[in-house]
Write a structure and sequence with these properties.
The chain has 14 helices and 7 strands. It has helices at 6-14, 18-24, 26-34, 40-51, 57-90, 105-111, 138-145, 149-158, 174-180, 194-210, 228-246, 260-268, 272-276, 280-302, and strands at residues 92-96, 117-121, 135-137, 163-167, 185-190, 217-225, 250-257.
Length: 319
């Protein structure tokens, strides 16, 4: 039935014009007609019963006729907004960032095991740094269509991509600034060595200076480490420093051990699957390490129940 609050009922009884009554009750009439599919004649009896006043059927029919097109348009626009909000809520954004070159940002971005993902390459110095089949080279889109990063992001959302991963440039650029406040997760890959650790800390401090993003969560990935001693000697000390800088924004660390498979992939431009066809024993260990890295990130950063699909990736590895 129709729900009219007591204040509206009292005011409706005082109004002399039928059209004024209908304008007062427009929201209720719109709901009855569009959502409850109520016939106008039935609606009239319901309103009369609710407010205790006789009304005109012809004037109600005219009011509905004059406004129904507008109501339908409003309903359509509301549906569109709700759909956009749903897509926005479902789409997660990940940025792989470090201003130090050679730490494997493109590799980590492509190896992240996330469902229905796309990698967006923002490195305007080298738009072809990845041949992964689900990579969007932003520089090419900008040159061909004149879109900015936000417009590119909107397009990917409309395509219902669940995860958008940004492979970022080696400095603060306009493109990076455009997305920073919209990012859900930031992954910082780093490698063994004093310079890599120093640049990682500099990167974090620089990001915090330009970001106004309370929701973002961070993780480290110790890439290309040699042995377990490096975890204690390299990762743990850096992690302590990162925690001091980021506080509760920092969630965890993962690691990916050095493998000769990576250089083979880079030289041959072949994916792990293509190499695996030639020698399963040689590349089994690397697949396992990638799976372990993803499981750690899912557990402590993404907290999403994904199933590993690394064997289906087509990737160019850049170190």
């Amino acid at each position: 039935m129709l729900k009219i609050n007591e204040d509206k009922k009292a005011l409706a009884r005082e109004l002399n014009s039928f059209s004024d009554v209908y304008r007062l009750l427009e929201d209720e009439i719109k709901e009855a007609v569009l959502e409850k599919r109520m016939k106008v004649s039935v609606l009239l009896k319901v309103i009369e019963n609710e407010i205790g006043k006789e009304l005109s059927l012809n004037s109600l029919k005219k009011f509905v006729s004059n406004n129904k097109k507008k109501w339908l348009q409003e309903k359509k626009e509301l549906k569109k907004v709700k759909k956009e909000e749903k897509v926005e809520k479902q789409t997660k954004k990940v940025a792989v960032v470090n201003f130090k070159g050679g730490v494997g940002k493109s590799t980590i971005a492509n190896l992240l095991d996330l469902p229905n993902k796309v990698v967006v390459n923002l490195d305007t110095q080298d738009a072809k740094n990845s041949n992964y089949s689900d990579t969007v080279n932003y520089l090419e889109l900008k040159k061909e269509y004149g879109v900015n990063v936000k417009e590119t992001l909107d397009i990917l959302r409309e395509e219902s991509k669940e995860w958008i991963i940004f492979d970022t440039p080696g400095s603060i650029t306009d493109e990076l600034l455009e997305i920073m406040d919209d990012i859900d997760y930031i992954i910082i890959p780093f490698t063994k060595g004093k310079r890599s650790k120093e640049t990682t800390l500099e990167t974090l401090k620089a990001l915090l200076e330009v970001m106004d993003n309370e929701k973002v969560k961070f993780a480290l990935v110790f890439n290309m480490y040699q042995d377990e001693k490096d975890i204690e000697g390299e990762l743990k000390p850096l992690e302590d420093e990162v925690k001091k800088i980021l506080g509760d924004k920092y969630r965890c660390s993962a690691s990916l051990k050095f493998s000769k498979a990576v250089s083979t992939m880079e030289k041959t431009q072949k994916s792990i699957d293509e190499l695996d066809l030639t020698n399963k024993i040689a590349y089994k260990a690397f697949k396992k390490r990638v799976k372990e890295m993803n499981e750690k990130l899912r557990e402590c950063l993404f907290k999403e129940p994904f199933r590993a699909k690394i064997e289906k990736y087509e990737i160019e590895f850049r170190y």
